[in-house]
Amino acid sequence: MIFGRPFPYGRPCTIRGFGRTILPERQRKSNQQFVTSELTARGRELLRADLSKESPVTEAELPDRADAKFRAVTGIETRYIFPGPLAELAEIAALDALARSHRAPEEIDAIIVGTNTADEYNIATDLKARHGVPTDAYGITMQAACPVGGMIVFEGWQMVRLGQAECVVVVGAEKAQTLASRGRYKSRNLFGSAAFAIILEPAQTETFTFFAYGSDPTNENLSLIRKSRFGFDQRSDPKKSAHQFAGRQLVSEVDRIIRTLHIDPSEFDHLFCHQASVRTNDFFLRRLREQWPSFRAEYHQNIVQMGNTSAASTGWLMARAMADGQLRSGQHCLVVTFGAGMSWMVYGFLVP
Does the reported pTM lie above 0.90? Predict the structure, then answer.
């Protein structure tokens, strides 16, 4: 699916405001703290056994040796571990977005939540209950791997375009560390907690330039990232992996989308890409720049400080960039999300 300007129906939609979580430092865990507080005894035992293949490791040496290993393999140094319910995490981002947009909860017509770590049936209805959102406001929670962080923006955009809502709050929220068990250090060390929110409303001019979604379950792609009894499970075959998908097939798909839309890559000012790992993102960015020699967009990242936050990663980066004054009105932003399936959601917007 590729959906670009001129859009065939509806009224213009704009981004009224962004919000994000800024969690306290006590919830930030270094790699050493992750080993001592987030792994079970079995998880530490497996970690120590793997590290001992290189050289013997004592229990006292384990946190520092693990830190060096994690940095070398994933590039991740810290991540935030939110202890409360997911709705509470989502609420932080939603309230931030409402405050920055000068909107009140009673003005909300729809809440669309995207997550892969829901701890109840519908996070959106919990958010409604917390702050007096009208009972007839639409509320839905979606799950579709990491690309759901882009899919909820598309769903909210459609509601505004079709005249179904005047104020839509889309929220991507993840306690992504819960995707993997505490006994599986190779998976659990990748993830952290975060949330973002975007307020969408009708406007005089359209903010979004295109949306494109796709998935390719063929050629063993379904087996690259699976949900097992241990949670998140990633195939490590160097010839066929999520890492290889990001740097090869995903780059080809993004290139095809932009060519189909007749957009010159040099038009993009900012790139917000799903934060999978430092290694994977560097591979994707290098291959994309090889494909597009004129591409000079600023690349935004937080993987080193926050880990992989699944559906929350791109929206959180956009909210930070807006709050920090890095985005200027009229600049063109490219957003690339991807994940299990293998699937992708790519979209563009002009900074309001």
Answer: yes
